[in-house]
Design brief:
Bacterial polysaccharide co-polymerase-like; 3 domains; 4-stranded antiparallel sheet
Length: 345
Amino acid sequence: MRSEREQLGYNEEVDFMDLMRGLWKQKFLLVVTTLLTTLAAVIYAFMATPVYEARLFVKPPTQNDISQLNVGRNGEGERVTAKGVYESYLQNLQSELQRRAFFRDIYLPSLNEQARKGSQDELYSEFGKALQVRMVGPDAPNRYYVAVRATDPQLAATWAEKYVQTASDRAKRELIADAKADALIKAGNLKQSIFASRESARKQREDQIALLTEALKVARSVGLEKPPIISNTLSNEVSAGMDGALVYMRGSKALEAEIANLRSRTSDDPFITDLRSREEALTFYSNLEIKDSVFEVYRQDGGVEAPDRPIKPNKLLIIALGVIGGLFIGVVIAVMRGLTTRSKA
């Protein structure tokens, strides 16, 4: 058994040495294939169109940046927070609607006419590789960046700024629309409240006229034209209680004057509590206008500049792969030639 194992090891060593001798005999082939593939790799590395990547980082706004959105929001639960505004912005930044709009309005017009005639799905897939939105990392969950790849470094930087800004514009429009809708609801509630208060005041005046008319009939029936003169402490008690059943004690002249005054009143507004403050609030909410320039939905973290070094192609990696690939191809060819020669022999 031992001699058989020794024989196998010897045969393997002999085969390996034969293989190495065969490769050494074809060293010229190995050198040629390696040089050719390396030359092709070098040509590709230096002739391939360079691709540049620009990155723009964003982070949440401050509470001061979104303070204008809280104008007229007095309730604690109604106030808009910087976190909520930033979440709205991130939803637009990563939304498919935003990407499709940018693809249609910015990316496609930048292509030549021949490229635009290709498959839209393939073009959109290429666009998905050229523009990506990523979170910076788990240690900074609120920081995101937009990475844009293009053959023109200035174009990559411009597109990154454009994409971030168009997402901001879309988020601002949504927030302004929400603020206006909320203001219109408040204005409608105030309008209804004012109308109800005026109707209530009108009915109260009509009820008061009816009450005084009844009292006037009683005063006339007893011949009481003026309030009776009552001395001592009873005077205060009676004068303070000249309401309800004792209204007639005011006298017919006073009652007639008060009824005439109530009937001639053209408006009950001065007698309605807090009416003027509600009217001011109604005017404010009805005319509320928020400009997109008075608040921000994100803050840019650093500037964005045109990159000066391409990310592709990686010349050293391509040349190294060319050397390794050429050597591998040469070895395969040499082995195949050696096996063919041995088979013929």
